[in-house]
Amino acid sequence: MALAAAAMTTSAAAAAPAVAPTAIEATANTSATPATPAVAADAQFGVPRPGALGIQEQVTEIGREAATFHNVWLLTLCAVISLFVLALLAYTMVRYRRGANPTPSRTSHNTFIEVVWTLVPVLILVAIAIPSIRLLQHQYSPPAADLTVKVIGNQWYWTYQYPDNGGFELVSNMLKEQSDVKPGERFRTDADGPKMLAVDERIVIPAGKVVKFLVTSNDVIHAFAVPAFWTKIDANPGRINETWAKVDRPGVYFGQCSELCGARHGYMPIAVEVVPEAQFAAWVASKGGTMPGSRPAATPDSTGASPVSTAAVPAAAQPQAAAPADNAAVEQPATNQAATAQN
Questions:
Q1: Which of 38, 58, 133, 265 is the least buried, fewest Cβ under 10 Å from its Cβ?
Q2: b/e for 32-59, b at 16 or more Cβ within 10 A?
Q3: How many other C-beta atoms lie within 10 A of the C-beta of residue 115?
Q4: Region 81-89 average pLDDT
Q5: Who wins on pLDDT, 326 or 95?
Q6: Residue 59 in contact with residue 249, Cβ under 8 Å?
């Protein structure tokens, strides 16, 4: 019997027509040959590059403003201060060395110097504070959101929900290497992304749209961080934090949990796929969701076409309720004891 059942199953599988997966559905493929993602990761963009210096190239307005503030203003100011302090130390060592001053000076309480070393640090802090406060104002005054994504941290994976698109949910885990999986299971390829950053389910967002991320946790404190977006915010259990991003450049961008959350903290990567709006709508439909403003077609009422429906019967032929002869003769319903007791 078992052999006969296996033979029937094999023949049925052979007779079934083969349907080629679309580019969007391909990410769900778990065959031995890993699926090709809809958008292949760029090894030179949106990922940490070994040996690279500085901040990742930013793809949001807030990120570009912050990178300019860091690279142009802060680094220049740090270089000027360092060179000034170095020159001052060199001058002091030469001018006031023992050979040039056998009798040390006993001068103290120089009013001019005390005023200078009090005012100069204050002016430096003000010069840093003004652009910093401006950046914070822009970062925490987001425009109206076009899309909301709820991000939930778990030990040790991420869950993503799309409340504006029917509320469907994605569970995202890190893709393992081919040597670490059993035959038939999906493994990481270069198209998925770098080692320990590629995931089986990416966040997908439309390009050029303001996306609001609502970030929380189911267990311990995690942190949702995507360096190319200039985004890093804690995921606290029992609390929802909010951040946002508007990415104009389509592509795949990677991040990680940036809060020590347990033994497998280093295995919680984040992958965000930015696609054109039409492709995003197709992806939402492939996940069973809907775009705002669109509703699935209503199922027709099976009784509407019934030959015995009320609408098909003439009004004159429909039974009419007989009017009572006398209002006093109308029988009153029995008292509901339970309802009376509750009232």
A1: 133
A2: eebbebbbebeeeebbeeeeeeeebbbb
A3: 10
A4: 95
A5: 95
A6: yes
**Domain 147-286, CATH 2.60.40.420 — does that match?**
yes
Residue pair 148/163 in contact (Cβ under 8 Å)? The answer is yes
| Contacts (Cβ under 8 Å, ≥6 apart) of 147 | 162, 164, 165, 205, 206, 209, 210, 211, 212
CA–CA separation, 51 and 100 (whole Å): 47
Q: Amino acid letter at 97?
A: R
Residue type at 210 in one-letter notation: V
Between CA 35 and CA 42, with CA 39 as vertex, the angle to 5 degrees is 110
- Torsion, Cα 252 134 77 66, to 10 degrees, reads 0
Query: Are the beta carbons of 258 and 270 closer than 8 angstroms?
Result: no
Local confidence band at 44 (pLDDT 50, 70, 90 cut-offs): low
Q: How many whole angstroms separate alpha carbon 338 and alpha carbon 248?
A: 64
Average pLDDT score over residue span 29-51? 60
Three-class DSSP category at 255: strand
Are β-strands 210-217 and 222-226 bridged in parallel, bridged antiparallel, or unpaired? unpaired
Q: Quick one: average pLDDT of 91-113?
A: 85
Sign of the alpha-carbon torsion through 3, 9, 10, 15: positive
Any idea which residue has 């770098």 for tokens?
A: 194
State yes or no: cis peptide before 156, omega within 30 of 0: yes
Rounded CA-CA distance 290/281 in Å is: 8
User: Model's pTM, two decimal places?
Assistant: 0.69
